Protein backbone atom coordinates (compact mmCIF):
# COMPACT_ATOMS: atom_id res chain seq x y z
CA UNK A 1 0.00 0.00 0.00
CA UNK A 2 2.84 2.44 0.84
CA UNK A 3 4.58 1.70 -2.45
CA UNK A 4 1.34 2.40 -4.31
CA UNK A 5 0.88 5.75 -2.48
CA UNK A 6 4.51 6.59 -3.22
CA UNK A 7 4.02 5.92 -6.94
CA UNK A 8 0.83 8.00 -7.03
CA UNK A 9 2.58 10.84 -5.18
CA UNK A 10 5.51 10.78 -7.57
CA UNK A 11 3.17 10.74 -10.57
CA UNK A 12 1.22 13.70 -9.18
CA UNK A 13 4.49 15.57 -8.50
CA UNK A 14 5.77 14.96 -12.02
CA UNK A 15 2.43 16.13 -13.47
CA UNK A 16 2.56 19.26 -11.29
CA UNK A 17 6.13 20.11 -12.33
CA UNK A 18 5.30 19.51 -16.00
CA UNK A 19 2.24 21.78 -15.79
CA UNK A 20 4.17 24.49 -13.93
CA UNK A 21 7.02 24.51 -16.41
CA UNK A 22 4.83 24.46 -19.53
CA UNK A 23 5.72 27.25 -21.92
CA UNK A 24 3.37 30.17 -22.11
CA UNK A 25 2.12 31.13 -25.59
CA UNK A 26 4.11 33.97 -27.09
CA UNK A 27 1.99 37.14 -27.13
CA UNK A 28 3.25 40.01 -29.26
CA UNK A 29 4.03 42.99 -27.06
CA UNK A 30 2.97 46.44 -28.15
CA UNK A 31 5.34 49.33 -27.76
CA UNK A 32 3.98 52.07 -25.51
CA UNK A 33 4.29 55.60 -26.85
CA UNK A 34 3.43 58.34 -24.36
CA UNK A 35 2.82 60.75 -27.23
CA UNK A 36 -0.17 58.70 -28.37
CA UNK A 37 -1.99 59.15 -25.05
CA UNK A 38 -4.79 61.67 -25.40
CA UNK A 39 -5.26 63.87 -22.35
CA UNK A 40 -8.65 65.49 -22.04
CA UNK A 41 -8.46 68.50 -19.80
CA UNK A 42 -11.66 69.40 -18.05
CA UNK A 43 -11.89 73.12 -17.54
CA UNK A 44 -14.64 73.46 -14.99
CA UNK A 45 -15.35 76.38 -12.74
CA UNK A 46 -16.96 75.25 -9.51
CA UNK A 47 -19.59 77.53 -8.08
CA UNK A 48 -20.21 76.70 -4.42
CA UNK A 49 -22.98 79.23 -3.93
CA UNK A 50 -21.29 81.11 -1.10
CA UNK A 51 -18.22 83.25 -0.47
CA UNK A 52 -15.32 81.09 0.78
CA UNK A 53 -13.15 83.99 1.95
CA UNK A 54 -14.51 84.08 5.55
CA UNK A 55 -13.64 80.38 5.97
CA UNK A 56 -10.02 80.63 4.78
CA UNK A 57 -6.98 82.07 6.59
CA UNK A 58 -5.76 85.56 5.74
CA UNK A 59 -3.61 85.75 2.59
CA UNK A 60 -4.57 82.19 1.67
CA UNK A 61 -3.01 81.03 -1.59
CA UNK A 62 -3.79 77.43 -2.59
CA UNK A 63 -0.95 77.44 -5.12
CA UNK A 64 1.82 78.66 -2.81
CA UNK A 65 2.84 75.14 -1.76
CA UNK A 66 4.13 76.18 1.65
CA UNK A 67 2.75 74.42 4.68
CA UNK A 68 3.22 75.12 8.35
CA UNK A 69 2.32 72.79 11.21
CA UNK A 70 1.63 75.87 13.32
CA UNK A 71 -1.37 76.59 11.10
CA UNK A 72 -3.16 73.49 12.39
CA UNK A 73 -5.38 73.93 15.41
CA UNK A 74 -5.08 70.71 17.37
CA UNK A 75 -7.95 69.62 19.59
CA UNK A 76 -7.08 68.45 23.07
CA UNK A 77 -8.26 64.88 23.33
CA UNK A 78 -10.10 64.22 26.56
CA UNK A 79 -9.25 60.82 28.03
CA UNK A 80 -12.23 60.67 30.35
CA UNK A 81 -15.75 61.08 29.01
CA UNK A 82 -18.62 61.50 31.48
CA UNK A 83 -21.85 60.12 30.05
CA UNK A 84 -24.04 61.15 32.96
CA UNK A 85 -25.38 57.66 33.76
CA UNK A 86 -24.07 54.33 35.02
CA UNK A 87 -23.12 52.08 32.08
CA UNK A 88 -22.67 48.88 34.11
CA UNK A 89 -26.31 47.91 33.58
CA UNK A 90 -25.79 47.93 29.79
CA UNK A 91 -22.52 45.98 29.65
CA UNK A 92 -21.83 42.24 30.08
CA UNK A 93 -20.66 41.01 33.47
CA UNK A 94 -16.87 41.39 33.88
CA UNK A 95 -16.56 43.67 30.81
CA UNK A 96 -13.13 45.28 30.41
CA UNK A 97 -12.66 47.52 27.35
CA UNK A 98 -8.86 47.30 27.59
CA UNK A 99 -8.67 43.53 27.07
CA UNK A 100 -8.43 42.42 23.46
- What does the main sheet amount to? none
Instruction: Report the helical percentage.
Output: 10-25%
If you average the pLDDT, what whole number results?
81
* Secondary structure: number of strands: 0
Radius of gyration (CA) equals: 34 Å
Q: Count the helices. How many? A: 1
Note the overall shape: flat
**Uncertain runs:** none
**Strand composition percent:** under 5%
Q: Give the termini distance in whole angstroms.
A: 49 Å
What string gives the helices and strands in order?
H
Secondary structural class: mainly alpha
Question: What report would you give on this structure?
Answer:
There is one protein chain. This protein has 100 residues and is mainly alpha-helical. It is 19% helix and 0% strand. The protein has one helix at 2-20. The two termini are 49 Å apart. The relative contact order is 0.04. The model has no long low-confidence stretch (mean pLDDT 81).
Amino acid sequence: MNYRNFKLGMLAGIAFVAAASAMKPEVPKEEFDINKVVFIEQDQDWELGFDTAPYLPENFDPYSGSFSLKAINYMDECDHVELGFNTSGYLPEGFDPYIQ
